Amino acid sequence: MDSGWRAMTLLLVMLTVAVLSAATALPPTPAGNLHSTSVGEEPLHMAVHDHAPLLAKIRACDGTECSSEHIRALQWLHDEAPHSEVSRSLQRPTHSDMSLEPEAEGGNIAALALNVSSVGGEEWSERNALCALYHATSGDEWFRNQNWCTDDPHTYEPCPDGEWFGVTCSLDRVAELNLPDNLLNGTLPSGFRNLANMTKLNLFANDIYGDIPDSFCSFTALEKVMLGVNKITSFLPDDCWSSLANLQELHMPSNEISTPIPLAFGNAKALVEVDLAYNRIYGELDDPIQSLDSLVALNMSHNSLQVIGPGITKAPNLKRIVIRGNRVYGELPEWIADSSLEDLSFSHNFFFGSMPDAWRTFSSLKYLDLSFNQLTGSFPDWLPELPDIRKWWLQGNDLTGTLPANIGNATSLESLSFAQNHLVGDIPRSIKDLHNLKGLYGFANKLTSIPDVFHKEMQLEQLYADIRSSITRPFLRSILLCFLLHRTTLPIFK
């Protein structure tokens, strides 16, 4: 009996000690002058009015590992000290927002769910979004990082008065982030999110690599994105194209994107200008484009596209398309003459055959570059009749025959290149009527003469040609007059 009683007494003592230990593990309420926590191995002691160290410790896990101390300190601020200075500074998260999951102990910033829905106040989320980017891209090594993620109370928040380098504020919120050529090195973290008022993101010319995370979709106010000259390997996530309803400019040239253009690309209805040059994008350029009613300019040069489809003619405002340096193989499409394009560059591809006669109705065309393909046939006589043509570049093809006699009808023409073909005969005398012509390139053909009637009103600045007959004195006088009046580059003759 005595042994049983002693065992029961010992058990009650142990339970009492356990309860008291648990009670002392959390700090007292703000009634006292000092707050103390002993969760984890490292105790925290600070006065109510001196809350910066606690804030620093809690926020020190921006993009790094968060210990149970940080997590429990946050929980205590919510449960036990909702009116303290520290808690007010953190803008008091709610129970439903905290998302303190069991596996978060010792985990990373995801355990604290650094976004508006997980920590409440907008200033908290903006700081943590930017600090997540800072830590994920070696912020301490940036070329300029003034005031980023410090514990200085005067510059603690990026807005309104934080004066963080590259951060522009409007109405006390982050409106622009401009960090071009600033030695950012790393991936875009999932914690970089919920900058709901940011209209411009410029991370051009850094060393950012990997995929763009889904959290990018939370930047719903974005109008301009500049991520060119990095090592990014993906388009925006599919859901982002419709989420970013205000996105007007997307500049991602010189990255490592090696996928086809996603169908969801067509959901970015506000896009006006897109530059995806110098990537590894392959496949077809067609359906996604036809849904972009606001698109004006599309640069897909130096990718690996194989097919250009008629969908591009259904984008009603598309004026400029550059497909230079891809792998498109086939004849020039007749249907493109039905578009409203003004600037068309298909150079450095594998187009063959003659220029389609249907293009004589291509009345909107102003700038045409078909150089370095495999085009054959004669120089089309309908080109000079296009009403506002300003540039013809047909260099590096296999055109034969003579230049059309009506070439002088293209009175708006500013630049003409027919070099490196197989043209013969004379340059027509009507060329004197091209008063706006500034560049004439005709070398590597079999031309026999250049007319001696270069008009004094011509604006010619560059002339490159090889001639296989004698050069007359009137011609030399004409060239000299052009040179004296307009500083023409002296011609190269072979």
Explain how this protein is built.
By secondary structure, the protein is an alpha/beta fold. It is 19% helix and 19% strand. The protein is built from 10 helices and 28 strands. Strands 3-4-6-8-10-11-13-15-17-19-21-23-25-27-28 form a 15-stranded mixed sheet, with helices on one face. It has a 3-stranded parallel sheet with strand order 5-7-9, with no helix packed on it. A hairpin with a 2-residue loop joins β3 (167-170) and β4. The protein starts with a helix and ends with a strand. Residues 23-52, 59-72, 75-124, 469-477, 484-488 and 490-494 have low confidence and may be disordered.
Count of DSSP-assigned helices: 10
The overall strand count is 28
Neighbour order of strands in the largest sheet = 3-4-6-8-10-11-13-15-17-19-21-23-25-27-28
* Weakly predicted, low-confidence segments: 23-52, 59-72, 75-124, 469-477, 484-488, 490-494
Using the CA coordinates, give the radius of gyration: 34 Å
Query: Largest sheet, if any?
Result: 15 strands, mixed
What is the residue-averaged pLDDT? 78
Give the overall form: elongated
Helix content: 10-25%
Secondary structure class reads alpha/beta
Distance between the termini: 123 Å
Proportion of beta-strand residues: 15-25%
What's the SSE blueprint?
Elements lengths: L1 H23 L9 E4 L6 E4 L4 H8 L8 H12 L5 H5 L5 H4 L17 H4 L2 H15 L30 E4 L2 E6 L6 E2 L13 E3 L4 E4 L13 E3 L4 E2 L5 H6 L5 E3 L21 E3 L6 E4 L1 H4 L6 E3 L4 E5 L11 E3 L6 E3 L11 E3 L4 E4 L13 E3 L4 E2 L15 E3 L6 E2 L13 E3 L4 E5 L12 E3 L4 E4 L12 E3 L8 H14 L2 E4 L2
Helix pairs in contact: 2-3
